Amino acid sequence: MKAQSSKLKAQTFDRRGSPPKVKRPRLIAEGFQPGRKHSAFRIPHSALQGASPLLVWGVVIVLAMSAVALLGYCAAPHDPTAMDIASRLRPPDAAHPLGTDQYGRDILSRVMGGAGIALSVGAVAVGIGLGGGVVIGAVAGFYGGLLGEVLMRLMDALFAFPAILLAIAVVGALGPGHVNAMLAIGVVNVPIFARLTRASVLAVREEGYVEAARSVGGTDWHILWRHILPNGLAPLLVQASVSFATAILSEASLSYLGLGTQPPLPSWGRMLEEARLFMDRGPWLAIFPGLAIGLTVLGFNFLGDGLRDHLDPHRR
Amino acid sequence: MRTYLLRRFPSFLLTLFLISLVTFVVVQVVPGDPAQLILGTEAPPEALAELRAQLGLDRPLPLQYLSWLSGVLRGNLGVSLRHGRPVAALIAGRLPVTLSLAFLSLILAVFLALPLGILAAVRQRSALDYGVLVFAQAGLALPSFWIGILLILLFALSWRWLPSGGYVPWGQSLLGALRTLAMPVLALGLPMAGVLARLVRASMLEELTRDHIRTARAKGLSEAQVILRHALKNALIPTVTVLGLQLGFLLGGSIVVEQVFALPGLGRLVLFAINNRDLPLIQGLVLFIAALVVVINFLVDLAYAWLDPRISLENK
Description:
The complex is a heterodimer. Chain A is mostly helical. Chain A has eleven helices and no strands. In chain A, 64% of the residues lie in helices and 0% in strands. In chain A, helix 3 packs parallel to helix 11 (284-311). The longest helix of chain A is centred in the middle third of the chain and has 37 residues, at 107-143. At the A-B interface, helix 4, helix 5, helix 9, helix 10 and helix 11 of A face helix 1, helix 6, helix 7, helix 10 and helix 11 of B.
């Protein structure tokens, strides 16, 4: 008994404290479980192992900012739009950890509220870009021909515009505002996703398994959704993360220019614009919203770079 | 080279045509009646109808597009509703400011990025290398208008070295122009320098592992010669392409940065046009800026093909 337990101990930890090497039968497809219905878009369990620090930091920052945004909606220390002229332009103190602005509004609460706006604009804009881009790219790649050519030429033309100029033009056309900014940034993102989708569709369109799916009577839609798109998912995910970052930057720029989120809603870009007149007396007005933008964009960029390394088998 | 030019030229023309189409479509979505904007809300309906006919607004949209396009091809971008002057003349008046800003930012970025990128690659994993990577991430994450605001806070409000805004034309005072452009150039050029430095570093690292570098070292060349003559030359090729792509980003970024520093360039004109619903001016400006980007990218493409003969032979 004693001998057995010491043997067990020896098996669990060797002298250098490193875990013993256990021989494990390798499955042909890692993450495959017999008897379970596998969704085409399921990420295998092994995908979570061996994440790079970049990916981990990206996930941590993005989750933290999402938590901040949620707290901003339901548990902000003050009402982000409540004015209190008696305590205007207060430097950071215990009651207002990030100070107050020219109307006495609490900057911390406004930065937290701004997180919600930035993330919602990012999510909707990326959603529009992804949705529109995948449909256009898939149609152009799958059917090709004149339709595909015309669609991709249009995408090229949209892509040729400097992103912020196109967004400004679209917002100028629709009128300034939070929702229109989402739409404008979304439109700007469509060509990027269309190109990526078309490329991945073209890459696998003639593969044997696509032909097999067609030969057993799969419809075009079924083949695209179940057999072709899952193959192009990795680059789309990476691009979604990077586009999320640029969408947040674009929203901040549009709001700074007065074309995005309108007062009194607390948008980071808008806060920076309002800070301009008062920052000689309250530099904190100009610092914290900018830091919030930088940190959030950094998080999404890390996430994108980390995902790119993680999902690309050649780089692992 | 000539066949390459001939092959690329039709698609270049097509892109320009599509850009004009997209611009026209986007701007025509603008709600509001230009005739009413000019004459005011209390104008009699007959006067409005007469002005609409005079402006050509009563004709079907395809006809309006064709007449606008034929004007554009002859260099006539229409007349601004608010300024009452030709759009082309307004653009010509503002162009030097924006071009100075973009060009100086580009120079700053290249002159910072080349040495930093080369040193980071040569001394991989040194403090300088990590510094360059942090610089690049910051350049990607921080909005240029926020960097501009911080610069104003430091150089204009705290230390009072530079004016916080405004513009002195080059013809009036060389030093004055440089003083007013210094902070905008830093705000626009620094983030780009970070991104470019990372690119130079990556392509240098790749180049330094090549066989011809080993040969160059083996035949006894000095390290400086190996790096500057043998590695850098090839590493510059991807850098030149990205530089071309970044020009669009620079022109877009200048719209926002001009607003921060009250520089009277194209960007401020775009905002003026949008805020005043000056249709012909918006249309002309968006078309001009986008076409400028497309022309520059086309020239960069040609330069690239000239630098790297493999490209003009591709897909032959």
